[in-house]
Amino acid sequence: MPSSSHRPRKRFGQHFLHDPGVLARLVAAIAPRPGEFIVEIGPGEGALTRPLAERAGALHVIELDRDLVRGLSGPGIPVHQGDALEFDFGALPPGLRVVGNLPYNISTPLLFYLARYAGRVRDMHFMLQREVVERMVAAPSTAQYGRLSVALQARFRMEKLFAVAAGAFRPAPKVESAVVRLVPLEHPLELDEALLRRAFSARRKTLRNALAGIDLAALGIDPGLRPENLSVADYARIAETTRRRPQTD
Question: Is residue 13's pLDDT more than 90?
C-alpha cells in the first residue's frame, strides 16, 4: 500500500482518512464478506482498501492519481486507473457493492452518475461532506431538500450512519464529514431529470412559474407551492403525466 508520504493534491480533492477508530467503524458498517464483489472509489493511500480486501478476499479499486495507483496493486486488488465519472459500472457483475471516501469536489455529480446503476447495485457506503449527506436524506419543505434529494430518494433508501470530524483526515478539510448508506429500492420511482433541473433551478419561484406549461392542478398539486414543497412521489406523478400527454400552454 502507498505510504503516508504521498503529498495530497488539491486538484484531486484529496483528504486521506487515517483515523483507526473511524476506519474500524466504517468497515463494520460495510460488513464485507468473502466472495462479494466490492468496488472502492478513490482508495487514496489504501487505508480502507486493506481491511476490505482482507475480509472480502478481493476488491476492485478506481483511482485517478497515477502516483497512488502504483502502490495500490496487490493480490486480489485489481486497480482501474481513471476517472470514476467515466467508469462503466454496468460492465461489472450485478449485486456489486460500492464504497469510498469520495472527493468533495466531484461528490455531487458522482452521486448522480452512480444513481444510473442503481439496478445493478446491492448497496453503497460513502464518506462525504456532511452537508451533502444532509441534502441526500432531507425531507420536503426543508432548506436542504433539492434536486439531489429527489433524484436519490426515488432510487434508494438512505441512512446517515455517523459523523466524522475533520481531524480524521490528512490534511484536515475545512468541513465535517459523514458516512451514508444507500440501498436500492425494490420499486424505484421514475423521474424526468430535465424536469427536476428546471424546477430546482428556479426554487424561489412558485411551481406555476418554475414548471409553467404543466397542468399541476389536474394532479391535485397546488401551483402556488414551491419546488421544495413537493414529495418525491409528486415529482414521479408529474413525470408520468408529462410522458403520457403533451404539455399545455
Answer: no
Residues in the chain: 249
The answer to whether 153 touches 133, Cβ cutoff 8 Å, is no
Identity of the residue numbered 78: P
Q: Give the three cell numbers for residue 7.
A: 503529498
pTM of the model: 0.89
The three grid cell numbers given for residue 235, joined into one nine-digit string: 415529482
Q: What is the DSSP letter of 142?
A: S
Mean pLDDT is lowest, of 60-64, 94-98, 228-232, for: 60-64
Cell numbers found for residue 176: 465535517
CB atoms inside a 10 Å sphere around CB 90: 10
Give the C-alpha distances (Å, rounded to integers) separating 45 from 67, 69, 77, 86.
10, 9, 13, 21
With DSSP H G I counted as helix, E B as strand and the rest as coil, what are the percentages for the chain, rounded to 5?
A: 40, 20, 40
**Helix H or strand E encompassing 116:** none
Q: What are the angstrom distances between the C-alpha of 33 and each of 52, 54, 74?
A: 9, 9, 19
> Do 81 and 63 contact (CB within 8 A), yes or no?
yes
Are the beta carbons of 110 and 85 closer than 8 angstroms? yes
All three cell numbers of 144: 436542504
The three-class DSSP label of residue 40 is strand
Q: Average model confidence (pLDDT) for the chain?
A: 89
Rg (CA), the chain: 20
Cα–Cα distance, 223 to 207 (Å, whole number): 5
Residue 85's CB is within 10 A of a number of other CB atoms, namely 14
